[in-house]
Amino acid sequence: MIPVLIDCDPGIDDTLALIYLAALHHLGEIELVGVTTTAGNTTATQAAGNARWVLAQLLIDAPVLPGRPRPRHVELTTTPETHGPTGLGYLEVPEAPETPGGDWAEVWRGAVDKHADLRLIVTGPLSNLAAFQQTHPEHYARLGNITVMGGAVNYRGNTTPTAEWNFWVDPHAAAEVFEDPPAASIRLCSLEVTEQFLIDPARLGALVDSLGATPVAGYLADILRFYFEFHRAQGEGYQAQIHDLLTCMIALGTIPYEDVSTTIAVEADSPLLRGTSVADLRGHWDRPHNARLVTSADVEAAHSELARAAGALAVLWAIR
Ligand code: BDR
Ligand code: CA
């Protein structure tokens, strides 16, 4: 069973990622050892409330804790226009249970100590990862398998002409992590790959059908409709890019993908280029490689994999 820790900011595509991970947890393919949140799509506290509610719907009782409340050196910007006023589109979760006390970094530290084969998946800004680097350097260095959704690498951005949202929100965190990476290369799922994974109303209908009596299925239309409308307003059509779910599948190797070893750097301080990420694919910088940049992923396999996970949840609810 693969131990998984996810650091996220649900967030609509983060929510689909959590549903997928919950299914794999119930299947016994992974152990979801913890969920921590970053401030990005919404506040870290709201994101934790959302994650806790989603996981409660799915009968997962992993610890869920909010992480750092703001970026390292810039003001926090959230994006209600993309993910809805509280991060879950048109859905406002019923009063989420109180956040249990606890320190998110202790969850990370405990997970590193307990699981040598831990997979860390980051689908929000890198604020927690960069903070962990500073507060727990020895444990940070032992993070052996990290997958990040972020960056528009040598590619147009979705937030500025050159920057992707997660890197733009906390550019200093992203820059620091690639400047001083853990022992293992970071597997980077950037926009040019993740934006290929699209769900439209027909795909959503099929997903809801596959989920059967799983309670969360009843909420997906309200959650996704907001994301469809946002993408249409951006000229992308009435559909949605599901970055974070594709990232989880790549992190777990449940779909085919290709990657390349390279050196990534992130610009933090330039006003125009804030959050811009660059891969030195030709070795101009003569710096050590710090990332495995994912260059393609099989999105049809991703749709099949999502259907497999949804079907597993349906079976679980059918036999309860
Ligand atoms: C990333 O930004 C967020 O809005 C999404 O949840 C995803 O993690 C895509 O740029
Ligand atoms: Ca996210």
Main sheet?
Answer: 8 strands, mixed
User: H/E element string?
Assistant: EHEHEHHEHHEHHEHEHHEHEEEEH
Low-confidence stretches: none
Report, as a whole number of angstroms, the end-to-end distance. 23 Å
Strand content: 15-25%
In CATH, the topology is named: Inosine-uridine Nucleoside N-ribohydrolase, Chain A
CATH class: Alpha Beta
Topology:
Blueprint: E1 2-8, H1 12-27, E2 30-37, H2 44-57, E3 64-66, H3 80-83, H4 104-114, E4 119-122, H5 127-135, H6 137-141, E5 146-149, H7 165-169, H8 171-179, E6 186-189, H9 191-194, E7 198-199, H10 201-211, H11 220-233, E8 240-241, H12 243-252, E9 257-262, E10 264-266, E11 277-279, E12 291-297, H13 299-318
Parallel strand pairs: 1-2, 1-4, 2-3, 4-5, 5-6, 6-12
Antiparallel strand pairs: 7-8, 9-12, 10-11
Helix pairs in contact: 1-2, 1-12, 1-13, 5-8, 10-13
The chain binds beta-D-ribofuranose (BDR) and calcium ion (CA).
Protein name: Pyrimidine-specific ribonucleoside hydrolase RihA
Keywords: Glycosidase, Hydrolase
Domain Inosine/uridine-preferring nucleoside hydrolase: 4-302
